[in-house]
Amino acid sequence: MDTTKRTLAKAISWQVMGLFVTTALGYVATGSVTAGGALAVSSAGLGLVTYTFHEKIWARIRWGYNAVRAESDAT
């Protein structure tokens, strides 16, 4: 299992890589690095918000949830 620091480093590096890729795609689509960067930043922010809502909704859905495994994972 990863440490908290490792998990945080992986999450940050993933997000930075995503920002570069989305900026590049935005540049190809618009011809502007500024517009591409704005697209990347807004996409990252919107993705964070929608993912949070997605997780909150799935936390309320019990389909496919194995309570026995969840209890053993908690110990």
Provide structural commentary.
Helix content is 84%, strand content 0%. The protein is mainly α and 75 residues long. The chain has one domain. The longest helix is centred in the middle third of the chain and has 28 residues, at 33-60. It starts with a helix and ends with a helix. Helix 1 crosses helix 2 (33-60). It is elongated and about 55 Å long. It is built from three helices and no strands.
The secondary-structure class comes to: mainly alpha
Helix segment tally = 3
The H/E string reads HHH
Q: Mean pLDDT, nearest integer?
A: 90
- How large, in whole angstroms, is the Cα Rg? 18 Å
Beta-strand percent range: under 5%
Biggest beta sheet attributes: none
Q: Give unreliable regions as ranges.
A: none
Number of domains: 1
Straight-line distance between termini? 14 Å
* Number of DSSP-assigned strands: 0
* Morphology call: elongated
Give the helix level as a range of percent. over 70%
Transmembrane segments: 12-29, 35-53
Protein name: DUF2061 domain-containing protein
Domain DUF2061: 8-59
Keywords: Membrane, Transmembrane, Transmembrane helix
